[in-house]
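User: tokens in, sequence out, please.
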């Protein structure tokens, strides 16, 4: 079971706001004081599982009062705060696995205790929380061990060798450590009862010398492993759970942030838990923006990104916004000039292809750059897949004679359905052949021939000196004949190309649409401004 979405009807800053969560990973971002922790609090308040203990925390339970505090002056009694909507719930246990759960609030004990209470329904006639494991990691986990007056070893619930090996392996990989941890130690701090931590020991230092980043990572890894162990303990009764993390990125360097998200996603899939966290990291938000590129608004997607802003003095919730939107708001800037205007590279097969590309999309010339290579389509495809993480930030344009099935076979090698940065030139032949066929088949009354007689550009003369004429008999391959003819007749090509574009609006317009789509896909990955279809010049 997992939380598909949430509606907050009325609570603090939120009024009739909807949120959609990823089946595996959800990031919530925004400026300070936009209600991110409030969302985590309401999510974590839905369930508890007190009979089982995590490795470091006292129970699988999120204490509402540890996430947010309440004011007798401002927090009101509310009959309908909002509703959580669940997916993959068990219809034979609607008490603990319902399709939805709504909340109300109440002040008790002479307005000293504010309670948020699950509402009864005809099918769920109780105000109890769900018997469903939740775990919240707040910022108290970041209390620095080095500043503690006393750090005591505590008894850690038995960690089997498989999970211990998993911890050590992922700990080292995420932090890019050159030393392999020799052991782990659980500790508590004298200054706070809210923090139990985990430290590693190596040949050169022990758990007392761990950095804040190591401390943070250790607790997050142990939380995930606690759910893994819980699933094993519950067997057939396992119905998932939710791990909530405030400020996931804090004290972790950028590469570690990205690796940690990859680890959490993998654990979420294997264990069957949902992980929702807040973040202020632009690095992490850019990384996640690539994960949500192909999200379907009608489906339960693996990743979701929620951005909350009060930039226009009214709270706005954005579901999966583009990275540029987040960047502008986070950095408090308002112009695309803030971004480094690096032109997007375009790879094509040869000079003839580049000539045609520049004629077809000349309106956008200032926003891309030609990479002058001469490679066959097989070589270009091999280049693309050899370092796809790099080359997906470039556009690849193939001649029209390259079969779609060939492109699909290469995309499948990478495990993706379709390249979003690859398009083809119009037609089904090489550019030089397309232009020759057009000239060769121009009707006698076409406007191109008007005024051409005096320059010798007649149908007869052009045919006598065409690519298949004796002028090019020294070449054995037709491809070479056409290429040589194309380059020998650059002035003629310049004159005729505009007629060809006008006479073939369907395929040339479609190419421009494909180009704009591919450009914008790459621009989104590269934090560059997108383009819109330019209006045709009169």
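Assistant: Sequence out:
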């Amino acid at each position: 079971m997992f939380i598909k979405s949430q509606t907050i009807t009325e609570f603090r800053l939120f009024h009739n706001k909807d949120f959609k969560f990823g089946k595996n990973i959800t990031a919530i971002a925004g400026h300070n004081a936009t209600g991110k922790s409030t969302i985590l609090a309401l999510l974590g308040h839905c369930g508890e599982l007190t009979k089982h203990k995590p490795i470091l925390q006292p129970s699988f339970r999120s204490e509402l009062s540890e996430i947010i505090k309440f004011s007798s002056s401002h927090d009101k009694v509310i009959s309908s705060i909002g509703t959580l909507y669940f997916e993959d719930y068990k219809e034979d246990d609607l008490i603990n696995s319902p399709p939805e759960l709504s909340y109300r609030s109440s002040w008790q004990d002479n307005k000293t205790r504010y309670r948020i209470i699950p509402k009864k329904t005809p099918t769920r006639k109780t105000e109890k929380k769900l018997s469903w494991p939740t775990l919240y990691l707040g910022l108290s986990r970041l209390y620095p061990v080095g500043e503690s007056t006393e750090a005591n070893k505590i008894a850690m619930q038995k960690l089997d060798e498989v999970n211990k090996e998993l911890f050590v392996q992922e700990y080292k990989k995420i932090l890019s450590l050159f030393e392999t941890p020799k052991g782990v130690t659980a500790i508590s701090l004298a200054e706070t009862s809210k923090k139990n931590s985990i430290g590693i020991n190596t040949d050169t230092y022990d758990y007392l010398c761990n950095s804040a980043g190591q401390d943070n990572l250790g607790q997050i890894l142990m939380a995930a492993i606690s759910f893994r162990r819980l699933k094993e303990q519950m067997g057939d009764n396992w119905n998932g759970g939710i791990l909530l993390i405030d400020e996931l990125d804090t004290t972790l360097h950028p590469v570690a942030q990205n690796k940690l998200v990859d680890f959490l996603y993998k654990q979420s899939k294997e264990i069957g838990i949902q992980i929702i966290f807040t973040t202020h990291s632009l690095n992490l938000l850019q990384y996640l923006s690539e994960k949500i590129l192909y999200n379907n608004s009608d489906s339960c997607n693996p990743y979701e990104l929620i951005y909350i802003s009060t930039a226009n003095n009214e709270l706005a919730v954005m579901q999966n916004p583009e990275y540029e939107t987040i960047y502008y708001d986070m950095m408090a800037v308002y112009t695309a000039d803030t971004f480094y205007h690096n032109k997007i590279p375009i790879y094509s097969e040869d000079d003839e292809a580049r000539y045609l590309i520049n004629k077809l999309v000349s309106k956008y010339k200032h926003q891309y750059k030609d990479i002058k290579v001469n490679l066959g389509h097989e070589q270009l495809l091999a280049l693309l897949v050899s370092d796809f993480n790099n080359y997906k930030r470039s556009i690849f344009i193939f001649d029209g004679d390259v079969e779609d099935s060939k492109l699909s076979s290469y995309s499948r090698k990478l495990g993706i359905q379709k390249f979003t940065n690859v398009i083809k030139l119009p037609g089904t032949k090489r550019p030089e052949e397309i232009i020759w066929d057009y000239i060769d088949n121009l009707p006698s009354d076409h406007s191109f021939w008007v005024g051409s007689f005096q320059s010798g550009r007649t149908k007869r003369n052009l045919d006598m000196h065409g690519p298949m004429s004796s002028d090019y008999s020294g070449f054995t391959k037709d491809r070479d004949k056409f290429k040589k003819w194309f380059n020998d007749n650059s002035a003629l090509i310049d004159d005729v190309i505009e007629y060809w574009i006008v006479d073939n609006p369907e395929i040339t317009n479609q190419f421009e649409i494909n180009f704009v789509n591919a450009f914008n896909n790459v621009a989104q990955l590269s934090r560059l401004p997108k383009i819109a279809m330019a209006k045709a010049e009169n």
